[in-house]
């Protein structure tokens, strides 16, 4: 396919993804709550375009946990899955 057709499609899909993420109450860009393998909760920046500070494997990635001071696989946590205490602890 020629680029002048592909490029607008990619842009539209990207915008749609951002809008969908927003409508679900999740920021498409910026900070999200993640949980490391040892159960620590913390906020980290989660860009859909990837990150220079972490290695990503889909919804899971490998990065430094500032709570336990160790490297770990971390998984994104939905805000709805957090308890009140957990939410307060990461604010
Ligand atoms: Zn940890």
Primary descriptors:
91 residues, alpha+beta, 2 helices, 5 strands, 31% helix, binds zinc ion
Task: Give an overview in words.
This protein has 91 residues and is α+β, with helices and mostly antiparallel strands. It has one domain. The chain is 31% helix and 30% strand. The chain is built from 2 helices and 5 strands. The chain has a 5-stranded antiparallel β-sheet, covered by helices on one side. A hairpin with a 4-residue loop joins β4 and β5. It is elongated and about 50 Å long. It binds zinc ion (ZN). Zinc ion (ZN) is lined by residues 36, 38, 40, 65, 67-68, 70, 72.
Number of domains: 1
- Which small-molecule species are bound to the chains here? zinc ion
* Strand content bin: 25-35%
Low-pLDDT segments: none
What does the overall shape look like?
elongated
User: Helix count, per DSSP?
Assistant: 2
What is the C-alpha radius of gyration, as a whole number of Å? 16 Å
Order of helices and strands: HEEEEEH
The main β sheet shows up as: 5 strands, antiparallel
How are the strands ordered across the major sheet?
2-1-5-4-3
Task: Give the helix proportion (percent range).
Answer: 25-40%
Number of beta-strand segments: 5
Distance between the termini: 46 Å
Quote the average pLDDT. 81
Judged by helices, strands and strand pairing, the structural class is alpha+beta
Walk me through the topology:
Elements: H1 3-23, E1 31-36, E2 41-45, E3 55-57, E4 60-65, E5 70-76, H2 84-90
Antiparallel strand pairs: 1-2, 1-5, 3-4, 4-5
Bound molecules: zinc ion.
The site of zinc ion has 8 residues, from strand 5.
């Amino acid at each position: 396919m020629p680029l002048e057709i592909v490029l607008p499609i990619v842009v539209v899909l990207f915008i749609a993804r951002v809008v969908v993420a927003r409508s679900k109450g999740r920021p498409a860009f910026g900070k999200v709550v993640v949980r490391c393998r040892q159960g620590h909760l913390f906020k980290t920046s989660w860009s859909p375009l990837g990150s220079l500070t972490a290695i990503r494997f889909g919804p899971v990635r490998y990065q430094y946990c500032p709570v336990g001071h160790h490297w770990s696989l971390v998984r994104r946590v939905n805000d709805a899955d957090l308890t009140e205490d957990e939410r307060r602890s990461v604010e």
